[in-house]
């Protein structure tokens, strides 16, 4: 059994399960951004050699910091809504390359003015404004501004104007996706696609480990549907996920509790079902 105090890099090793998790509204509380309720489950995962792959719209800097606090630096992560990957191991801020982000911003700036003014992204806001709109502490808002591949923002126009905005973006190969809080723009890539790439790394010549995915917003749907088991975490604050086909077959379920509390309960319940964890009497 793995020593939880000294977890190893499980890349290319046989693991019993790989867990993919959204952050805001799922593993992180919607209001406080805390994950304390999930800590007991973290220790179970580490002890059983189960990788936890964080998958979020957050930047590499943000996720690297959270990953370290949670104790999963030995696991890769999916950043900026699936438009990038963060390798396992220590993170060096010198590795940040904003070339793609600057191209994205320049393209958005060049859109017709009547549409451009209806969308405000992180690149339009100061750190203080990001703090005000997200509720993040100042130092975390600063990390959130260090984007490489995508632009979260707020839309203030009508649905008809939004359709026109998205069509103009599509003409430039830019996609727009609704998350729990923001409309995020990028050149593509989804959590589901990156999930498959990471699972490939954990696949041996004879074994592909099962996968569990947890999320709360529409931008998690591909990941939830691609997993062997998907869990929709209850989030009273964000955009709801409509009923999915997997809910009829039992491959996707919904938690009754929100945030990290619902996350921990769901994870431990599924580990119990898979005979990877036994509840104490």
UniProtKB/TrEMBL annotation:
One of its GO terms (molecular function) is hydrolase activity. Keywords: Hydrolase, Magnesium, Metal-binding. Signal peptide: none annotated. Pfam families: Hydrolase_3. SUPFAM superfamilies: HAD-like. The keyword Membrane does not apply. InterPro entries: HAD-like_sf, HAD-SF-IIB-MPGP, HAD-SF_hydro_IIB, HAD_sf. This is HAD-IIB family hydrolase.
């Amino acid at each position: 059994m793995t020593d939880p105090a000294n977890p190893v890099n499980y890349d290319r090793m046989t693991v019993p399960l790989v867990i993919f998790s959204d952050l805001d509204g799922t593993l992180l509380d919607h209001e406080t951004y805390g994950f304390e309720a999930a800590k007991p489950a973290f220790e179970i995962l580490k002890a059983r050699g189960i990788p936890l792959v964080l998958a979020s719209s957050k930047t590499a800097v943000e996720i690297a910091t959270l990953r370290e606090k949670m104790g999963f630096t030995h696991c890769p992560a999916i950043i900026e809504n699936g438009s990038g990957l963060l390798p396992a191991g220590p993170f060096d801020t010198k590795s940040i390359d904003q070339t793609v982000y600057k191209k994205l911003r320049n393209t958005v700036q060049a859109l017709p003015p009547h549409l451009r003014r209806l969308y405000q992204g992180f690149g339009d806001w100061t750190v203080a404004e990001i703090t005000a709109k997200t509720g993040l502490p100042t130092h975390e808002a600063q990390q959130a501004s260090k984007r490489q591949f995508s632009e979260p923002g707020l839309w203030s126009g009508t649905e008809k104007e939004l359709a026109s905005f998205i069509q103009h973006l599509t003409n430039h190969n830019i996609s727009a996706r609704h998350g729990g809080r923001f409309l995020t723009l990028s050149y593509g890539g989804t959590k589901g696609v990156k999930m498959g790439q990471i699972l490939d790394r954990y696949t041996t010549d004879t074994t592909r480990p099962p996968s569990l995915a947890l999320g709360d917003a529409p931008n998690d749907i591909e990941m939830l549907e691609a997993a062997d088991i998907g869990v929709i975490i209850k989030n009273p604050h964000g955009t709801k996920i409509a009923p999915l086909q997997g809910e009829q077959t039992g491959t996707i379920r919904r938690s009754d509790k929100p945030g990290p509390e619902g996350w921990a309960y769901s994870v431990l319940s599924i580990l119990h079902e898979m005979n990877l964890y036994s509840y104490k009497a």
